[in-house]
């Protein structure tokens, strides 16, 4: 039974896009149907153009589909990847969540299996707070949070954030920690939990 996985991300300069792509790679290895979807960019053009890395990434990802409520309804599982902004979610990601009110009101967010990842410029720059902010909204959705915990040794090698993979990005935009394997583990675990939930739903149907 293939799991439908939506990988919903926001990224200004490519870090969270790369993490989303690693999650997609893991999902394909696990036999899931995966879609990498960006949330809509809301920043004014002038802001994007003032930062060459942002402008380059914005232009390079024009072909990535924009996440919609239909994608959330389709998904058995959702992985969110999002930068930290002042210790919190970027407004672009928050806007996406806020646009799911209709879905929520119709009970369509219930039992989605979710997990989240984040990045920031500093090792302790708020990644955990960002992941937890997203999880707070997920509790309102009635979603099932499949945090990675310490379910695999790769967690320790990547910085050991049990809430969700987090990474530090240096001034040149490079990831400091090697988190690829941890991202792939988190994606596979999210799919595994979604599979248990889906099987349970079929048995009880
Ligand atoms: C408005 C703004 C606020 C930010 N706030 C934080 C912060 O609170 N802590 C931190 O370490 N980095 C902060 N950063 C750095 C971003 O988290 C970093 O650029 C981002 O994680 C890179 O991800 P991306 O390449 O996917 O855009 C901030 C950046 C911006 C533009």
From TrEMBL:
Annotated keywords: Oxidoreductase
The entry lists its GO molecular-function terms as: NAD(P)H dehydrogenase (quinone) activity
**Pfam families documented for this protein:** FMN_red
Check the record and name the PROSITE patterns matching this protein.
FLAVODOXIN_LIKE
**Superkingdom to which the source organism belongs:** Bacteria
Q: Which residues form the Flavodoxin-like domain?
A: 5-191
- Give the EC number: 1.6.5.2
Question: Which PANTHER family would you find in this protein's record?
Answer: FLAVODOXIN-RELATED PROTEIN WRBA-RELATED, FLAVOPROTEIN-LIKE PROTEIN YCP4-RELATED
Q: Which family does it belong to?
A: Belongs to the WrbA family.
Q: What is this protein called?
A: NAD(P)H:quinone oxidoreductase
Organism lineage reads as:
Bacteria, Bacillati, Bacillota, Bacilli, Bacillales
């Amino acid at each position: 039974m293939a799991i439908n996985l939506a990988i919903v991300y926001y990224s200004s300069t490519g870090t969270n896009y790369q993490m989303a792509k690693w999650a997609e790679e893991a999902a394909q290895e696990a036999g899931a149907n995966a879609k990498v979807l960006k949330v809509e960019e809301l920043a004014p053009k002038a802001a994007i153009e003032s930062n060459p890395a942002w402008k380059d990434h914005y232009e390079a990802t024009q072909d990535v589909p924009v996440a919609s409520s239909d994608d959330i309804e389709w998904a058995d599982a959702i992985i969110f990847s999002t930068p930290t902004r002042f210790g919190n979610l970027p407004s672009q990601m928050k806007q996406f969540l806020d646009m799911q009110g209709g879905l929520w009101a119709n009970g369509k967010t219930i039992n989605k299996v979710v997990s989240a990842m984040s990045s920031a410029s500093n090792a302790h720059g708020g990644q955990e707070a960002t992941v937890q902010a997203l999880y707070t909204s997920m509790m309102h959705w009635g979603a099932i949070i499949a945090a990675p915990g310490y379910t695999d040794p790769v967690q320790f090698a990547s910085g050991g954030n049990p809430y969700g993979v987090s990474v530090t990005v240096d001034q040149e935009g490079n990831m400091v920690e090697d988190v690829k394997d941890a991202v792939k583990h988190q994606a596979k675990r999210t799919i595994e939990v979604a599979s248990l939930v889906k099987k349970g739903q079929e048995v009880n149907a």
